[in-house]
Specification:
It contains one helix and 14 strands. By secondary structure, it is mainly β. Helix content is 2%, strand content 69%. A hairpin with a 2-residue loop joins strand 12 and strand 13. The two termini are 40 Å apart. The strands form two sheets. Strands 1, 2, 3, 4, 5, 6, 7, 8, 9, 12, 13 and 14 form a twelve-stranded mixed β-sheet that branches.
């Protein structure tokens, strides 16, 4: 059984202080009395900017871990609790400008107080000499002092790792395959109503995502292929865009030694 506690301090990063980027705008046509478009008026500007008024983030952290091993099986459980003061969080804000275009900007702000509580369970076992498996489950509850969920922190997260490998010729040649499935659910994501511009939180669930790798290694040379999102799961990213579908990469690696 392991117990730990500590205090944390984080200063704002340069991006959180001074970042500035305008990456899009929304315009409406200006028409004359005949209905012809004579110009375009920028109505809303989209982008992100830093905030040099935010304060440093402070935290108090507690955690415990318990581990048990039997032959080729290892089981771990644990939990943690963290409280934050002035937690730095990026938020979308709609800024009305009477003298020009309105702005919809992502700006970092301080959350006066927040807490994150979580627990995990993990099992790691070797069924055979050439087969390793690992499974982990995380449960997290992240809220501010008003009981509102903190964004981009999944409540349920399951990850796995299945590795099959075999060696030949005194381990000079080896082949292997690794599969890494993940399941993510209940991510609180900040949304903005496109009509009223009111902000609200919505739970999104990317679901099951599968990554993998296959390789052939001879001495210090490795030929491999990696697959990302093999399940071709199209899910929403934090910025509102859609994820890439399945994609594969091929490569050669050389592990040099002194």
């Amino acid at each position: 059984l392991k117990l730990s506690t500590g205090m944390g301090f984080r200063s704002p990063t340069p991006n959180e202080l001074w970042y500035y980027e305008i990456y899009g705008e929304y315009s409406e046509p200006v028409v004359d009395s005949t209905g012809d478009t004579i110009d375009w008026e920028i109505v809303t500007v989209y982008g992100s900017r830093g905030n040099d008024n935010i304060e440093s983030e402070r935290s108090l952290n507690f955690s415990f871990t318990s581990q048990c091993s039997m032959n080729t099986v290892r089981f771990s459980i644990g939990g943690f609790y963290s409280t934050y003061k002035n937690l730095i969080q990026w938020k979308e804000k709609y800024i009305v400008n009477a003298d020009g275009a309105d702005s919809s900007l992502w700006i970092p702000e301080n959350v006066l107080s927040a807490s994150i509580f979580g627990a995990f369970a993990e099992i790691d076992f070797q069924l055979l000499q050439w087969l390793d498996c690992k499974l982990r489950y995380n449960w997290t509850l992240a809220e501010d002092s008003s009981g509102n969920k903190l964004p981009e922190r999944p409540q349920h997260f399951i990850s796995g790792n299945i590795t099959v490998k075999h060696s030949f010729w005194d381990e000079q040649l080896s082949i292997g395959i690794k599969m890494e499935p993940e399941y993510t659910d209940c991510i609180a994501r900040a949304k903005t109503n496109p009509i009223t511009y009111e902000q609200y939180m919505e739970n999104v669930s990317p679901g099951i995502i599968l990554d993998g790798k296959m390789w052939i290694r001879y001495k210090d040379f490795e030929f491999f292929t990696k697959g990302k999102n093999i399940t071709d799961n199209i899910y929403e990213l934090p910025d509102g865009e859609k994820s890439l579908g399945k994609n594969f990469h091929f490569g050669i690696a050389w592990n040099f030694r002194n």
